[in-house]
Write a structure and sequence with these properties.
Number of helices: 7
Number of domains: 1
CATH topology: Maltoporin, Chain A
Largest sheet: 22 strands, antiparallel, barrel
Structural class: mainly beta
CATH class: Mainly Beta
Radius of gyration: 24 Å
Mean pLDDT: 91
Strand content: over 45%
Number of strands: 37
Distance between the termini: 46 Å
C-alpha cells in the first residue's frame, strides 16, 4: 500500500511538471462546456467550482456495467455498493439524500430518498446517456434541496439531424457469466423533426470477488429499458422536445442481509423508473428575454420488496409508489454585455402510496407500509443566478427561496400538515492569472428539506427499526472553497481545498429500551452538527504525442461535533493513476485505483455489519482497457483487477470484482 501511495504522489508531481503551455503540440484539447453550474452554457475555465464533464465517448470507452460503476475507482468520486444492483456516489463525504441527481434538468430525488447510500443512480440506463456533469460542493441555489455534497446531472441522447437514418447495436458479455446484455437504438430525421428510439435488455449474474472470495450469491438480477425522444424544431429559435424513459429491474438481492442478518430472502423484487417530459426551448433577440425553457414532467417510480427470515413462516411484501409531477421555467437575460442572469421558478408535487402485507402459511394480513399511505409533498422554489464577466474576473452570485409542504395521514391522529422553508445563497470570484491559470474562491450555502422518509418511516431500514418523526427542520450547510485551475494545449489540472460546516443534521437517535423484531428502535431528530474538509487534485496531461497521464487524488476528513467522533461513512484517502495511449484506431489505458485503509470510524460504522470495529482495509487494483474502432464497428475490452485482489470500498456490502473481463462490440450506421 505504501508503494501505491508513493506511485500516486509521483504521478501527481509528474502531472504538475507537465502542466505548462507549449506550442510544440499539434492538437489542442477542446475545453468542455457545462450547463449545470449556472443553468446556462459556461466554459469550465470560467466556472468558480469543481465541475467535471464526462462525454459519451468516455462513458462508452469505460464500458461500465452500470452508471454508478462509471464512477468507481476514478479517483474523483467514491462509490459505495450495498449490493450488486446498487451503487451510491459520495461527493465530498456525503451521499444519498444529501446529494442531488438530475436527469435532463429534472430532479430524480423525491420525497422518499433516504439518508445514506441508495440504489437510485443505478436506475439510469448508461446506454441512454450522452453526457454527465458532476458539481461538487454546490447546487442548492441552482437546483434546490439535497445538494449539500453536490449534484450529478445526466443528459440523455438526442436524435441526429445530420442523417435521415441511423442505427446502433451494442452487445456486452463478461467472464464467469456476470453479464449478458444487448441494446439498440434507431435514429430518424426528416426536415425539422428528429426521433430516437432505444431499448436494452441485460442479465446480470452473481458478482465474483477476488482471491478467496469467489462467487457472492445471490447477487444477480435482470434489467430492461426503453427510451424514446422526439425533437421538433418549430422555427429557427423555437424547439419542442417530448421524451419518455423507462427502466425496470427484477429480483435484486440485498446480499449483505442474506449473508449477515439471517435472511432466507431479502430483495427488491421489482423496481422501475419512469420519466416523461415535455420541453419548450425558445430564443429571442430581446436582451431581457434572451432564452426561455419550460419543462413539464411526470415520474412514476414503484418499488416492491420481499423478505423472509431463515426458519420463519412469515413472508413480508412491501410496496411503495411515488408519482411526481414537475414544472420549471427558466429565463436567461443579458441586460448588458458583461452580465448574465438565469432566473426562474420550479415545483415538484409527490404523491406517495405505501402498503405492506405479511403472509404466514398462506394467510395474508395488510399493515401500514414503510411510509404513511396517501402522503403528499409539494416542493416549490424561486431562484435567480447572476454572472458578471470582466477581463480578468468572473463573479457569480445567486439566491433561492424554497418552500416545502407535506401532508402526512395517520390512522389514529388524522392528517398532519408540515411546512418548511429555506433561503440559500452563494458568492464566488474567479481571477484569471494569465492565459491558462485561474484562481477562485467561493462560498455556498445549501440545505436539505425534511422529506417523507424522515417524517414518516416505520419499519426495518438497514440494521435498524425506525419510527416516525414529525418535528424536523431543514439541514443546513455553509461551504468555503479555494481552488486553482489550469487549462493548456496538452491538458488540464485542478486543485481544491474546502471546508463544509453542517448544522441541524437529521440523525437517527436510539430510543432507549425499545427493540422491535430484534432490531434497536431509532427516531430522527435535528441533533447533528459536523464539519467536513478536504483536498482534491485532478490532472490530465499529454507527455508525448498520443500519450496522456492522468492523476486524481481525494482526501476527506469528517468530524461529528456533537458526538466528538468521526462522521459516518467517511471515505478514506483514495486516488487513480492512468496512462492513455493512442496508436491509430487503437487506444490502450492501464490504470491503478487505490485507497488507504479506513480505521477512523464512527460508532455507527462500528455497529454497521458492513464495516465493523476493524474498519475497511486498503487496496490497490490494476485495470486495463483497450478500444479499437474499424469502419462501423467498435470493440472494447476491460480487464479488471489483474492481481485478483480481494477488496471492497468502505461501507460496501459486497466485494469488488475479482480478475475478470468485460467485452463489448458496437455497430453504427
Amino acid at each position: 500500500m505504501r508503494k501505491t501511495i508513493l506511485l500516486l504522489l509521483f504521478s501527481f508531481s509528474l502531472s504538475f511538471a507537465m502542466a505548462k503551455d507549449t506550442d510544440s503540440l499539434k492538437v489542442k484539447t477542446l475545453e468542455p462546456v457545462n450547463v449545470t453550474a449556472m443553468r446556462s452554457s459556461l466554459k469550465n475555465s470560467e466556472t468558480p467550482a469543481r465541475i467535471f464533464c464526462f462525454s459519451k465517448s468516455e462513458l462508452q470507452t469505460s464500458d461500465s456495467r452500470t452508471l454508478p460503476e462509471f464512477f468507481n475507482g476514478n479517483g474523483n468520486y467514491f462509490l459505495q455498493k450495498t449490493n450488486h444492483g446498487g451503487g451510491s456516489v459520495f461527493l465530498r463525504g456525503l451521499t444519498g439524500n444529501q446529494t442531488l441527481i438530475l436527469v435532463d434538468g429534472i430532479r430524480l430525488n423525491n420525497s422518499t430518498f433516504r439518508y445514506g447510500p441508495n440504489q437510485y443512480l443505478n436506475t439510469i440506463n448508461p446506454f441512454m446517456v450522452s453526457s454527465v456533469e458532476v458539481l461538487s460542493g454546490s447546487g442548492s441555489v441552482q437546483y434546490g434541496s439535497d445538494a449539500i455534497g453536490g449534484l450529478i446531472q445526466v443528459f440523455s441522447n438526442n436524435p441526429d439531424f445530420d442523417k435521415k437514418f441511423g442505427l446502433n447495436i451494442n452487445t456486452r458479455i463478461s467472464t464467469q457469466n456476470m453479464e449478458k446484455g444487448l441494446s439498440g437504438a434507431i435514429k430518424l430525421s426528416k426536415g425539422k423533426f428528429g426521433l430516437l428510439i432505444s431499448g436494452t435488455v441485460k442479465q446480470f449474474g452473481d458478482l465474483v470477488g477476488g482471491k478467496n472470495i469467489g462467487r457472492q450469491a445471490p447477487n444477480g438480477y435482470d434489467e430492461s429499458a426503453l427510451e424514446a425522444k422526439g425533437i421538433w424544431n418549430l422555427s429557427q429559435n423555437l424547439s419542442l422536445t417530448l421524451a419518455h424513459q423507462h427502466l425496470a429491474q427484477r429480483n435484486v438481492p440485498i446480499y449483505h442481509k442474506i449473508l449477515l442478518e439471517d435472511f432466507k430472502q431479502n430483495e427488491i423484487s421489482f423496481q422501475a423508473r419512469n420519466l416523461s417530459f415535455l420541453k419548450f426551448d425558445n430564443k429571442t433577440q430581446n436582451r431581457f428575454f434572451s432564452s426561455q425553457n419550460i419543462t413539464l414532467s411526470h415520474q412514476f417510480n414503484p418499488e416492491e420488496r420481499t423478505s423472509q427470515k431463515n426458519n420463519a413462516a412469515l413472508i413480508r411484501f412491501e410496496k411503495d409508489q411515488i408519482n411526481t409531477s414537475g414544472f420549471s421555467f427558466t429565463n436567461i437575460s443579458l441586460p448588458v454585455k458583461y452580465w448574465t442572469i438565469s432566473s426562474g421558478i420550479e415545483a415538484y408535487d409527490d404523491k406517495v402510496y405505501s402498503s405492506k402485507i405479511d403472509e404466514t402459511n398462506g394467510v395474508k394480513v395488510s399493515k401500514r407500509g414503510l411510509y404513511p399511505n396517501n402522503s403528499s409533498y409539494l416542493n416549490s422554489a424561486i431562484f435567480s443566478l447572476h454572472q458578471f464577466s470582466f477581463k480578468t474576473f468572473q463573479i457569480h452570485a445567486g439566491l433561492r427561496w424554497n418552500a416545502v409542504k407535506m401532508q402526512i395521514p395517520d390512522e389514529t391522529l388524522g392528517t398532519s400538515e408540515v411546512k418548511n422553508s429555506a433561503l440559500v445563497y452563494n458568492f464566488s470570484v474567479l481571477k484569471k492569472l494569465g492565459k491558462n491559470f485561474g484562481l477562485y474562491s467561493s462560498f455556498n450555502t445549501a440545505f436539505r428539506a425534511p422529506n417523507i422518509d424522515d417524517m414518516g418511516t416505520l419499519g426495518i431500514v438497514d440494521f435498524r427499526y425506525e419510527i416516525p418523526s414529525d418535528n424536523l427542520r431543514p439541514e443546513k450547510s455553509k461551504q468555503f472553497e479555494l481552488g486553482i485551475k489550469g487549462n493548456f494545449k496538452q491538458g488540464m489540472f485542478q486543485i481544491n481545498v474546502f471546508q463544509n460546516q453542517l448544522e441541524d443534521l437529521i440523525t437517527r437517535e436510539k430510543v432507549a429500551g425499545q427493540v422491535i423484531e430484534t432490531y434497536q428502535v431509532y427516531a430522527k431528530m435535528n441533533t447533528g452538527k459536523a464539519i467536513i474538509k478536504g483536498l482534491e487534485w485532478s490532472s490530465k496531461n499529454r507527455i508525448i504525442e498520443n500519450l496522456y497521464v492522468s492523476t486524481f487524488l481525494t482526501y476527506t476528513y469528517g468530524q461529528d461535533l456533537i458526538k466528538n467522533e468521526p462522521l459516518r461513512r467517511m471515505p478514506p484517502f483514495f486516488g487513480n493513476f492512468a496512462l492513455e495511449y493512442a496508436l491509430g484506431k487503437l487506444k490502450i489505458k492501464p490504470s491503478l485505483a487505490a485507497a488507504t485503509a479506513q480505521k477512523r470510524l464512527a460508532s455507527g460504522d462500528i455497529a454497521d455489519n458492513r464495516i465493523g470495529k476493524d474498519g475497511t482495509p486498503g487496496f490497490a487494483v490494476f485495470n486495463m482497457n483497450a478500444n479499437y474502432a474499424i469502419n462501423r464497428f467498435n470493440f472494447n475490452l476491460n480487464v479488471l483487477n489483474l492481481g485478483n485482489k480481494a477488496y471492497k470500498t468502505h461501507g460496501s456490502g459486497v466485494y469488488g470484482y475479482g480478475r475478470s473481463a468485460f467485452g463489448s462490440v458496437s455497430f453504427n450506421i
